[in-house]
Write a structure and sequence with these properties.
By secondary structure, the chain is of the alpha/beta class. It folds into four domains: 28 residues, no CATH class; 56 residues, no CATH class; 200 residues, Rossmann fold; 91 residues, Rossmann fold (3-Layer(aba) Sandwich), CATH 3.40.50. 39% of the residues lie in helices and 14% in strands. The chain is built from 15 helices and 13 strands. The strands form three sheets. The protein has a six-stranded mixed beta sheet with strand order 4-5-13-10-11-12, sandwiched between helices. The protein has a four-stranded parallel beta sheet with strand order 8-7-6-9, sandwiched between helices. Strands 2-1-3 form a three-stranded antiparallel beta sheet, with no helix packed on it. Strand 10, helix 11 and strand 11 form a beta-alpha-beta unit. It is globular and about 50 Å long. The chain binds zinc ion. The site of zinc ion has 8 residues, from loops.
Amino acid sequence: MIREMIDDSPPHSGARRTQRQAWSDSLIDSEISPPSGLPGGASHLECTLCGAEYTSERLRGLSDCCSRPLYARYDLAGLRGKVSRESLRSRSSDLWRYAELLPVRDPENAIRLGEGWTPNIDTPRLASRLGVRRVWVKDEGQNPTASFKARGLCLAVSRARELGVTEVALPSAGNAGSATAAYAAAAGLKAHLVMPVDTPPAIIQEARALGADIELIDGLINACAARVAEGARRFGWFDLSTLKEPYRVEGKKTMGYEVAEQLGWRLPDVIVYPTGGGTGLVGMWKAFDEMQALGWIGPHRPRMVSVQAAGCAPIVRAWEQGTDFAEPWQDAHTYASGLRVPGAVGDFLILRAIRESHGAAVAVSDAAMERWTGELGRLTGIFAAPEGAATAAAVPLLLERGVIRPDDEVLLFNTGSGLKYVR
Ligand SMILES: [Zn+2]
């Protein structure tokens, strides 16, 4: 709408145009321009396993010391008092409203397709069906490319371009592929995607339409990852795999900021999150600490629950066995392609967040996901991805085990639209 108004106006067409232009400019200022305030940018990167520090101003993958994920750290003490909760109110309705807590230094390098600030939907009929006092569904299907993957890839691609990357690559069995294609297209970068042949056809078609170079492989995500690693070595592609570069998690963490802000700066009792690579869960956990350091929230934390598919549940098994790391899952199978991740590089971070929060990890069957896609749809009006339906399917199990109590306020994540899975 705003764009059309600007395009309609021929340049230098007199006073009427000036008036319209001024109005457009004011709309732009309040709605789609980068938020005013401090520029973004991390102070440094830190190894998540041993704490070793690295400069954030050059391209990095995993840490040199431990080959584990790197986290971006910020001068939170310096930002405290300079960025207040109140100052966010007039900002853009996308994840860039938290610009000071994001790694992109120059607002000019922020690629913007309308990512983030998804609705947190109160669902009383679902709550009543589940036997819980209150249930919200954070509907991530309303992101660009219809999934939460937009958040992480938006930040990873923006920052990669800022650091000089021209070709990005990703192994993906689901929505991360089309999100990469979209942000690479918007940024003018080449995207190489390696996907299993049984990736949902809608996702493959979407990524193709968004200009990505796509290779289909008769194998699991691990085989695709090996192919991307080879391309990175041979052709210099920058590998955007989950947590193998430091910035996807920075995009995902904005879900945590949004949950707090949308609930009036409090957090729910329980967050139920479908876990493949687990970036969103660990990202939110990171966001809670950052917000506390900024003085935006107190020490209360939700119990974090990781939901996986019964046919691929490495985190659930590790949590039940009490180990710090998760053994890769053999013969992974589930139609929820986003949950078909046999081994997550951030396994110890996921397990740590679950334990520190007194949460849990549970597995649900594909049949339960299918059943709950229907229940959720009929009771909320949201056509959820199977991964999102898995969170609702997990609630009865969590009530049985006492992880959720009937008087709790529970937040479920629908990570994407069900439309992508229609065959
Ligand atoms: Zn280390």
